Amino acid sequence: MNIKDIIEQKLSEVILNVYQLKDIKLEVQENKTEFEGDFTIVTFPLVKQLKKNPESIGVELGEALTETELFESFNVVKGFLNVKVKNQLFIDNFRSVNKNFSVVEKKNATVMVEYSSPNTNKPLHLGHIRNNLLGFSVAQILKEAGYDVIKTQIINDRGIHICKSMLAWEKFGNGTTPETTHTKGDKFVGNYYVEFDKNYKKEIADLVEQGMGEEQAKKEAPLMKEAQKMLLDWENGDDAVRTLWAEMNAWVYKGFNETYKRLGVDFDQVQYESNTYILGKDLIQAGLDKGVLYQKEDGSVWCDLTDEGLDQKLLLRSDGTSVYMTQDLGTAVERFKQNNIQKLIYTVGNEQDYHFQVLFKVLKKLGYEWADQLFHLSYGMVELPEGKMKSREGTVVDADDLMQEMYETAKSKAQELGKLESLSEKDKEASYETVGLGALKYFMLKVDPKKKMLFNPAESIDFNGNTGPFIQYTYARIQSLLSKAGALQSEIADIELNQSEKELIMQLANFKTTVAKSAETLSPALVANYVYDLVKTYNSFYQNNPILNQEDENVKRFRLTISDITAKTIRKSLELLGIGTVNRM
């Protein structure tokens, strides 16, 4: 429990004793004013109930609080009650933080987090990076908050878009492979998706020039007709098409796994759309039998959600084929059947908000009570200074290229500073990688997930300001300090604390509260901005307090210990964001 929580608890007890008022919670703020005191208590909410002015309420509460074991003195300024907390409370709180740092209280509940879910017709890009980092970080934070977590992805490995890449390779690939062209598998296949689009557009232009309308030309273009036939052949189990499909997907999976490894994300389970697209049809029949769904004359099946403020949703086409919603219904049911999970989180961009509203409501109508435990972690798109990306036109920021660019920038900066010269080449390379990718991850995760964001690589790797490298540098600085100090003694003496030491203790005590809040809101941005504030507070403490040169041995020991727990908290916070640390920068 942090000091603020302790004060709020004691304040509630005092209000009950003095005024006989239950369940009153006054706002307690850290005192940032020039008035003496560690915290400020806002008394105005009691004015109406007690029919007293705020100043007299402040005095009455101040006198009652200073009679307890926690408070030393108080003053009242215009109804704001400023209280000075006894030094011992800070010391005891710090001992508790130090002792319980690694303790995780288990929740006895399992959460499944879905993220990534790419298509096998193109490599991962900048948008996938935000998705993966967000999903992975949320999973890490939920674990730290005490939940058991299952990380999963569903790979979209079938459909017309996959057939476009396959057909283009058949026509234009001349039997080449990723190996013969020395190309990463997912990029190799993605190139043929772009190739299909280029040739398809040429065919449309030719048909339009011959007098056909554009919409008709899109349907009549030979390439599109061939791709549609290939999809039909795939669904009918054609051996040649299935063999090519399996081979090209294998190329892509190998490429994906290389990207995931470098990005530092992983999965406990993987599902494939080719296995799940037939799921859900039995649910549709059950819904018809219950009268929850209805069938039109053409045989198509619908769900009427107008009473929920939505519209009517198609769940099965007239020819009996499923739509995305059908398979998502089946996949959700399958996940709860196969895993003992209490919550399922879908990390998907905000362009799918409506889809998930419908999915959750249909599942609820079908009688699945756990539908209330489904959550869409909706996030804003990532844009570049030059605008949106387009996969078909090949104008995306490739995930691998971006990671390499971040590595190169970190390497260039480190060489400029010249502080890693004594390290081996292997250690230098590891440092460049950790700092470069740390910059990328922190920049992505410090923004609230709901917000659209503009990604600026140069800004992200600045060694000053709210950036990953700035935080990693402080960690490295503390490691250097602790290395010079030698072994730490575990006992913490009762010393008289100054203001910067108190502020640092309060920041450290807020870590577990921040993690809990971040888990509750599914926002890694809370952890990112917490660790930035912690680093700023520590740097202020470091600049204003001698540590190794401190003559009082008890004070020196305390300052080394608080530096050590600060480093551990920085490291743990960065771990929750999927970011590594280095001992030298």
TrEMBL record:
A GO CC term attached to the entry: cytoplasm
Encoding gene per record: argS
Domain DALR anticodon binding, chain residue ranges per copy: 471-585
Domain of life: Bacteria
Enzyme class: ligase
PANTHER family, per database record: ARGININE--TRNA LIGASE, CYTOPLASMIC (PTHR11956:SF5), ARGINYL-TRNA SYNTHETASE (PTHR11956)
Protein name according to UniProt: Arginine--tRNA ligase
Subunit composition and interactions: Monomer.
One GO BP: arginyl-tRNA aminoacylation
Catalysed reactions, semicolon-separated: tRNA(Arg) + L-arginine + ATP = L-arginyl-tRNA(Arg) + AMP + diphosphate
Keywords for this protein: Aminoacyl-tRNA synthetase, ATP-binding, Cytoplasm, Ligase, Nucleotide-binding, Protein biosynthesis
Keyword Transcription regulation in record: no
Pfam families to which the protein is assigned, alphabetical: Arg_tRNA_synt_N (PF03485), DALR_1 (PF05746), tRNA-synt_1d (PF00750)
Family: Belongs to the class-I aminoacyl-tRNA synthetase family.
Compartment annotation: Cytoplasm
